């Protein structure tokens, strides 16, 4: 302990470039605390600040900010983000790459995708399953294009096409079968 008289602080320094400074506790219940009750605790490194531990627990009573040109989270297991609300803002593209399925689940009233530009879903196969009504609304043009067969089916139920004008263009035969 240093008396708070004319001392401005404690400096632990090594003048040799290859000498490390280690602060070690011996007892199992002896912790190392960096504590400032009225100011900021700053960790500065010219190259890399490395924290190696069995468990890392960061607690902030108001906000936690991680600023860097690139942030990389790497895990050999599962990486979880658990929060009351999750807000992801990006000024550039958001890319999620995986060799396994991506699952987005909402226990509330649905999932909303919105953009001012085009939204593309590019995939080998798209399967939309709905236990209730599935609705696609557009205030502009809508195109369904298939390089193979395009099938609209409702099983034993009715399939409706409601429109002001129905225009069917076919370069080959157009067949409508009903029983």
What do you see in this structure?
The chain has 179 residues and is low in regular secondary structure. Helices cover 0% and strands 0% of the residues. The chain has no helices and no strands.
Q: What topology does this entry show?
A:
Elements: no helix or strand
Approximate helicity band: under 10%
The CA-CA distance between the termini, in Å, is: 94 Å
* Class per helix and strand makeup: little secondary structure
Number of separate helices: 0
Could you say which overall geometry the principal axes of the C-alpha atoms support?
Answer: elongated
Strand content: under 5%
Largest sheet: none
Question: Averaging pLDDT over every residue, what do you get?
Answer: 81
Assembly state of the chains shown: single chain
Radius of gyration: 30 Å
Q: How many individual β-strands?
A: 0
Low-confidence stretches: none
Brief digest:
The protein has 179 residues and is mostly loops.
Any key phrases for this structure?
179 residues; little secondary structure; 0% helix; elongated
